Amino acid sequence: MREAMLTLAGLFLLAHVFLAAGVLPAERPSIPCDENGAVPASQAAFQHISAQHHHGYKYKPSDFPSSQDDLACEFHLELDLEETTCHVVNPKPVEECVVRETHETKVQSNCNVTLTVVEGKPTVKKYSCSSDPASAEELQKICPDCPSLLPLHYPAGLDSIKSALKKFHEESNETSNFKLLEVGRLSTQHMLTGQSYLAEFAIVQTDCRSHVICVLGRGKAQYGFCKSTVLGNDEVSVDCEIYDAQVRTLHHCRGQVKIPPSIHPICPHPIRHMPPTPADN
């Protein structure tokens, strides 16, 4: 096996921008089984991972080293991805999403992908990703007063979301009821008013009263994304974006990868779907 290590970030990003702008033909060109196939193979791998990523936040590429097996027409790719501030329910194209800054506790994911090409068409055989937030030590150096991440199930953080969602329903002009779909982030910060909690969370439209848990039927539903702050004096502020109706399915990966408690990692492939736990409802 002959391996030629390549750094593909610039070429890949250029190709990705052209694709987003409609410059490339609608039908993807064949991928050659040589070094020239590394860029389109990396592009195909990134698009596949993005299509399978149904929870947490969208990711953008930063670097793409690769090697290629001439005999098997198989590419071994290493994709370095960075978390953006766009939740997966946000319909905005990932090209328009902003990568999270270091002081916001940046999250990076390293993905190892095996992709085969048959008659010019790519197929992802397998991939696994390791997702990690910036360390608390790194954050302390650049911004000691910035909010620090909490586990996604932290009780006081979840209570702050309940208060925020209650205020949203009281003040919103939306005629539909919304329930919590997924906690995106929880963080805490000590302010003059005491210990405060900041949250990011996705919501989904329901057709039921607030005391009954159910989501709209198999058709489309509206989704939204909210940011909230509950100060130490219990003052609540919340801001939500509500998107046009869409059909979505959120899958959760458990017991397959090491899952940091404070972020949503990229699930491995193939995903083993598991029934929701009471905490998901």
Automatic annotation (TrEMBL):
GO terms for molecular function: endopeptidase inhibitor activity. It comes from Paramormyrops kingsleyae. Keywords: Disulfide bond, Glycoprotein, Signal. PANTHER family: ALPHA-2-HS-GLYCOPROTEIN, FETUIN. Residues 1-22 form the signal peptide. One of its GO terms (cellular component) is blood microparticle. It comes from the Eukaryota. InterPro entries: Cystatin_sf (IPR046350), Kininogen_Fetuin_HRG (IPR050735). This is Alpha-2-HS-glycoprotein.
